[in-house]
Amino acid sequence: MNDDRNQYQIIRIDARNCFVESLSDAFSIGKAHLTFCSYDKRRPTGQRMTDSIQIYIDMPDWLELCRMLDSGELRWLLQQSLKSGDRSPLREWLGGTSAKKLAHFGRPRPDGKSLSRTAQLLPGSKADTLLFVANSGPGEENATGLIVPKFGKNPENHVSVSMTLGNLGQLLLTSRVHYTAWLSAWYAARMHEVEAPSFGKAPPPPTSNVTPFTPAGHSPVAMF
């Protein structure tokens, strides 16, 4: 991964032959940016990457997931899933790039379809473990602009990162701290663009072009 990408890296969670990292380069558009990668160490250096998927999650959704973690709701949902054997996603995100945008960027798919990218938080096989899974492949844009996946169980790219609930907490909360810091800096920069009011200083005396009246032949002292 190049230096330009690494300078935005917030945190990286590694698993067997794969990882997910959180990046700060999409804060300005209100999104958390995750890169999911898998690799094969048997390949030559520089050619080891086997899959790479970029996932963008709206920041309000990211912060809601942080709330679920903070409150214990996410842990409770995970425990209930393990008890019932339900393998449904705890959370799921759909996204991607429309065929029109791909053509505009000069990267149309050979099949002419949109590019679908999905992310899922799935219960793991043990207590307090999860799978953070990303998939990409052909999709179709619906009437509301959502890219609906059309790859079934056979995505073109697939990365599944196994992690503990603690690892997920590191990913979520460290990213939240960085976003909060970025947002504070953004507001501070905006404040400098507007002239700040002056506090603790008396206003300057009013100016007037009218000459004060003094009775002829009398000094101000003699008036009293």
Concise synopsis of the structure shown:
With 224 residues, the chain is α+β, with helices and mostly antiparallel strands.
Structural class: alpha+beta
Report helical residue fraction: 25-40%
Largest sheet report: 5 strands, antiparallel
Rg over CA atoms: 29 Å
Principal-axis shape equals globular
Q: Show unreliable segments.
A: 206-224
Q: In total, how many beta strands? A: 9
Oligomeric organization of the protein chains: single chain
| Secondary-structure element pattern, one letter each | HEEEEHHEHEEEEH
The third-level CATH topology is Transcriptional Co-activator pc4, Chain A
CATH class placement = Mainly Beta
Explain what the structure shows.
The chain has 224 residues and is of the alpha+beta class. It has a single domain, classed as Transcriptional Co-activator pc4, Chain A, CATH 2.30.31. The chain has five helices and nine strands. Helix 2 crosses helix 5. The model is unreliable at 206-224 (pLDDT under 50).
What key attributes describe this structure?
9 strands, 5 helices, 5-stranded antiparallel sheet, Transcriptional Co-activator pc4, Chain A, single chain, 224 residues, 4-stranded antiparallel sheet, globular, alpha+beta
Secondary-structure topology with pairs:
Layout: H1 3-6, E1 9-15, E2 18-23, E3 31-39, E4 49-58, H2 59-71, H3 73-84, E5 91-97, H4 99-104, E6 114-123, E7 129-141, E8 147-149, E9 157-164, H5 165-193
Antiparallel strand pairs: 1-2, 2-3, 3-4, 5-6, 6-7, 7-8, 7-9
Helix pairs in contact: 2-5
